Amino acid sequence: MPATKRTLALFDVDGTLTPARLKITPEMKAFLQELRKTISIGVVGGSDFVKQQEQIGSDSLSNFDYSFAENGLVAYKNDELIAKASFAQKIGEEELQKLINWVLAYLSKITLPIKRGTFIEFRTGMLNISPIGRNCARDERNAFEEYDLKNNIRKDMVAAMQKEFAHLNLTFSIGGQISFDVFPAGWDKTYCLQFVDRSLFDEVHFFGDKTFEGGNDYEIFTHPDVKGHSVTSPDDTKAQCTELFLS
């Protein structure tokens, strides 16, 4: 089917439109605007809206047809806020504090090559948990990712939390280099799809780099109503989109 405005492409941010936690390049930004002349485009990331704009630009709402932060818990269509949901309200303050206290206790018992600060980031729709701490520098972030791959720091912590908090029906999603997200079941990236008017589109595509099971792109990548595409970098995203939509 030829690409038209009735085709919607949704993009992850880290590793898909930008290198992890870095800003979008002018070249990628220009490419997306060229792509938008042919199809409709949207962004769906796990970070909060402020961080999303830091990476893809303060003008992001005018550059995408849909902007979904925190997996769609904060949802915009063009520049209009159309939905917002709260993790704290969903599970309640008592359970939230139990969760936070458990995380702090767990992290106090593990030793890493280095630890920095901001181990828990409270977002509108989730908790983001980082064993090394989100205040780490770029080289420290890269070193932790390599260490984590060999020692399963995040995977082991997720497994322990799944056992401890089974009664809350939470989802644990490993994404990026240093952290994982915790949110109610169903609040993964497929959450954003409810805000896409399917009568407007013949096809919905998704591009992401964490499409493996347990990655934060997996659920939307495998959703039956979505054509999923696994990418390895922003350049790969550009190449695949060119072949699919601009050839």
TrEMBL record:
<keyword id="KW-0413">Isomerase</keyword>
<dbReference type="GO" id="GO:0005829">
    <property type="term" value="C:cytosol"/>
</dbReference>
<dbReference type="InterPro" id="IPR023214">
    <property type="entry name" value="HAD_sf"/>
</dbReference>
<dbReference type="GO" id="GO:0009298">
    <property type="term" value="P:GDP-mannose biosynthetic process"/>
</dbReference>
<dbReference type="Pfam" id="PF03332">
    <property type="entry name" value="PMM"/>
</dbReference>
<feature type="active site" description="Proton donor/acceptor">
    <location>
        <position position="14"/>
    </location>
</feature>
<feature type="binding site">
    <location>
        <position position="179"/>
    </location>
    <ligand>
        <name>alpha-D-mannose 1-phosphate</name>
    </ligand>
</feature>
<feature type="binding site">
    <location>
        <position position="209"/>
    </location>
    <ligand>
        <name>Mg(2+)</name>
    </ligand>
</feature>
<feature type="binding site">
    <location>
        <position position="14"/>
    </location>
    <ligand>
        <name>Mg(2+)</name>
    </ligand>
</feature>
<feature type="active site" description="Nucleophile">
    <location>
        <position position="12"/>
    </location>
</feature>
<dbReference type="InterPro" id="IPR036412">
    <property type="entry name" value="HAD-like_sf"/>
</dbReference>
<feature type="binding site">
    <location>
        <position position="21"/>
    </location>
    <ligand>
        <name>alpha-D-mannose 1-phosphate</name>
    </ligand>
</feature>
<dbReference type="InterPro" id="IPR005002">
    <property type="entry name" value="PMM"/>
</dbReference>
<feature type="binding site">
    <location>
        <position position="123"/>
    </location>
    <ligand>
        <name>alpha-D-mannose 1-phosphate</name>
    </ligand>
</feature>
<dbReference type="GO" id="GO:0006013">
    <property type="term" value="P:mannose metabolic process"/>
</dbReference>
<feature type="binding site">
    <location>
        <position position="221"/>
    </location>
    <ligand>
        <name>Mg(2+)</name>
    </ligand>
</feature>
<dbReference type="InterPro" id="IPR006379">
    <property type="entry name" value="HAD-SF_hydro_IIB"/>
</dbReference>
<dbReference type="InterPro" id="IPR043169">
    <property type="entry name" value="PMM_cap"/>
</dbReference>
<dbReference type="GO" id="GO:0006487">
    <property type="term" value="P:protein N-linked glycosylation"/>
</dbReference>
<dbReference type="GO" id="GO:0046872">
    <property type="term" value="F:metal ion binding"/>
</dbReference>
<feature type="binding site">
    <location>
        <position position="12"/>
    </location>
    <ligand>
        <name>Mg(2+)</name>
    </ligand>
</feature>
<feature type="binding site">
    <location>
        <position position="181"/>
    </location>
    <ligand>
        <name>alpha-D-mannose 1-phosphate</name>
    </ligand>
</feature>
<feature type="binding site">
    <location>
        <position position="141"/>
    </location>
    <ligand>
        <name>alpha-D-mannose 1-phosphate</name>
    </ligand>
</feature>
<dbReference type="GO" id="GO:0004615">
    <property type="term" value="F:phosphomannomutase activity"/>
</dbReference>
<keyword id="KW-0460">Magnesium</keyword>
<feature type="binding site">
    <location>
        <position position="134"/>
    </location>
    <ligand>
        <name>alpha-D-mannose 1-phosphate</name>
    </ligand>
</feature>
<keyword id="KW-0479">Metal-binding</keyword>
<comment type="similarity">
    <text>Belongs to the eukaryotic PMM family.</text>
</comment>
<keyword id="KW-0963">Cytoplasm</keyword>
<comment type="function">
    <text>Involved in the synthesis of the GDP-mannose and dolichol-phosphate-mannose required for a number of critical mannosyl transfer reactions.</text>
</comment>
<protein>
    <recommendedName>
        <fullName>Phosphomannomutase</fullName>
        <ecNumber>5.4.2.8</ecNumber>
    </recommendedName>
</protein>
<comment type="subunit">
    <text>Homodimer.</text>
</comment>
<comment type="pathway">
    <text>Nucleotide-sugar biosynthesis; GDP-alpha-D-mannose biosynthesis; alpha-D-mannose 1-phosphate from D-fructose 6-phosphate: step 2/2.</text>
</comment>
